[in-house]
Amino acid sequence: MNHFWIILIGALVGSSCSILGCFLVLRKMSMIGDAISHSVLPGIVIAFLISGSRESLVMMFGAAAIGLVTVFLIQMFQNSGVQADASIGVVFTALFAVGVVLISLYTRQVDLDLDCVLYGEIAYAPWDMLHFGGTSIGPKAVWGVGASFLLNILVISLFYKQFKISTFDPALAASLGIPVVFFHYLLMSLVSISTVASFESVGAILVVGMIIVPAATAYLLTDKLSRMIMISIILSIVSSLLGYYVAYLLDASISGTMVAVTGVLFLVALFFSPKHGVLIKKWSRRKLLQQN
Amino acid sequence: MNWFSLFLDPNTQWILMGSMLLGLSSGVIGSFAYLRKQSLMGDALSHAALPGVCLAYMLTGTKSIFFFLIGAIIAGILATAAIGYITRNSRIKQDSALGIILTVFFGVGIVLLTQIQHSNSGNQSGLDKFLFGHAASMVKLDVYTIAGISAVLVVLCFLFFKEFKLLSFDPGFAKGIGLPTILLDQFMMLLIVTAVVIGIQAVGVVLMAALLITPAVAARYWTEKLHVMVILAGLFGAFSGFVGTVVSSMVNNLPTGPLIVLSATVLFIISVLAAPNRGVLAKTRLRVSAKSEYQPLTNQRVKEKSL
User: Which fold has domain B3-213?
Assistant: First the structure.
C-alpha cells in the first residue's frame, strides 16, 4: 500500500506542478518557480511560529503571501534597473537566508528539518496518516497535494483563455481588457500554494524539477498549449512511476530519482522529438540534401 | 564574549580570513557574471556541483577539498556545456535550460548522496554539511585552500581584465578583433565554477549564488565604471564575509552562511536606497527638483537628466 501512496503523491505533485510549469516555461519565467520554492521557507517558519502547528491553512497562506512578496520584490528591482535574473537571485537567496536564520534561532520551537525541506523524503509521507472520525483516510500529503492539484485545475480551466492570451501576447491581452497583472499574480500565487503543499512531503528539488522539466519536455513535443499541458502531466506521472521503481531497485532517494527520470525523458525528447528533435532535424536535413 | 578576545582567537581568525577572501573573489567574478547576464549561472553551477562532489568521494573515498574541487569542476563544465547545447540546438530558452540542468544534476547528486549514506553510514557527515555549508568548522587546511584559490582567481581577473571587459560589453567586437571568445567564455565559466566550489564549503549550495550576485548588483548601483564596480563588489563581498562571520561567532547557534548573505543583502538595500545617481532617494530628489523648477527643456537637457 505504501508503494501506491508514494507513487500517488509523486504523480499528484508532478501533475499540479507541471500544469503551472507550462505557463512558466512559455513566459520565460522558469527560474521564478525555483525562486519561489526557496523563498517560501521564511513564510512557512513564520506561519509555524504563529500558529504552532504544521497542518493549518495558516501555513499555506503564510507561504503564499511570501511567494507573492517574492514576485513583487523581483518585479520592483527589475523595474528599477536590475537585470531580471540578478533580481531573482538577490531576492530568493535573501529570503532563504532569513528562513534558515529563523529556523536556527527558534530551533527548539520549530520542528522543521532543513535537510528534509530541501531535498525531501517522500518515503516517510505515507506514515503521516490523516484521521477522520477514527478511521484513517489516507496520508496527509495526498490530501494536501490533491487539494492544490484540484485548485490548479479549477483556476486554470476557469481562466484558460485569459491565461493563454496573456502568456503568448500580453500586449494583445491588455488591449482586450484582460487584467494581465492580476493573472500574473494569480499564477504566481498558484505556484506558491502548490510549492507549499508539496514542500514538506517531497522537498523543494522535486517541486522545482516537476515545474520545469516535464513542461520543457512537452514544449519540445507539441505546438499546442492544451496538448502541452496534457503531455506534461502524462510525463510527470510516468516519471514518478519509473522514478519510484528505479529508487526501489537502487535503494536511493525517491525524489532524486524521480527528478533524474524526468531528465532522462527530456534528453530523449531533445534528440528524438518528431518535430524539434536534434537528431531528427539532422536526419531530415541530410535526406533533403540527398534528394537534391 | 568581547570583541577583542574574539579577534585574538586563532580559530576565528582563520574563519574570518577564509570568508573575507571568499567574499572578495566571488564579488569580483560575480561582477563579470552580472554584466554578462549570467547571474543565475552561479545558482545552477552550485547545484550541479553536487553529483561531481559525490562521485569524487565515491571514487577516492576521502573527504579532501582538492578532490571535491576536481569533481565539482568537471560537473560544472559538463553543466555549462549542456546548458549551452540545449539553448543552441532546441527551442528551449536559457532560463528553462538552466532550470532543467540545475534540478536534474541536483537530483542525480541526491541519489548519489543516498547511495553513499547507505554504503558506509559513518563517513558521510562531511558530505551532508556540503549542502548547507559549515564555515564555523573550517580547519586551517580548508582556509589555506580557500585563500590560495581566491587569490589566484582575483589575480586572473586582474590579468584578463581587458579581455573580460570587452567580452562583457561587446562580444561581437571582441570576436571581430580576433580574441578567442569561445575559449575566454569557457575560461570565465571555469573561474565561476571554481569560486562556486570553494564557496559551497563555507556557505552551502543555495546561498553560494547570493555571494556571486548580491555584491555585484549592489556595486553596480554606485558606479558606471567597470574597474570601480569590480573593486567595490570585491569590497562588499569581503565586508559581508567579515560581518557575517563576526555575528555568527558572537551569537550562539547561528549559521555563518545565511548571515554572510544577509549582510550582503543589507549592503544591497543600502545601495538601492542611497546610491548617488541610481538610488531611489537620488531619483526621487531629482524628480522633485525637476518638477519644482519646471521649464521647457531642450532635448539636450532632457537627455542629460534621464540618463
Answer: ABC transporter involved in vitamin B12 uptake, BtuC (1.10.3470)
